[in-house]
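Batch job 17 of 40 flagged for manual review because the log was empty.
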Amino acid sequence: MNFKKTYSISELSQEFDVTTRSIRFYEDQSLLTPGRRGQTRIYTSQDRVRLKLILRGKRLGFSLAEIRELFSLWDETTSGSEKQLSLLLIKISEKRAELEQQIKDIAMVQLELDSAESRCRDALNELTTKQKQQQTE
């Protein structure tokens, strides 16, 4: 039997917990290319996998342009050519460096917040102490 599983937009929406509007947006961005039966979009298993990869890529911090670039590299040949794999390794390395910088930036902001919180607590304690002294006078 040569049965190929297909999905409706609502099935994919429910499976991946994304809106149908998001899926249509990915289609508008040429990241998904479903077939049509009349006005109904018909998604293949390949479209399902691509949607899963889009969502994973977004979660990892890749832009839609970067995801599109990775898809186009992969679509050139599905054999996993040396060029594709090398470029993918470069993208992974770049994303890792970007995330490491974000981690450093977040750590700095946390230190600044700790300092601001400490100053606020000190000022609040000082005000409370002054108010108590004024009440006892």
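Reviewer: the log was empty due to a logging misconfiguration, but the result itself is present. DSSP finds five helices and three strands in the chain. Unflagging and moving on to job 18.
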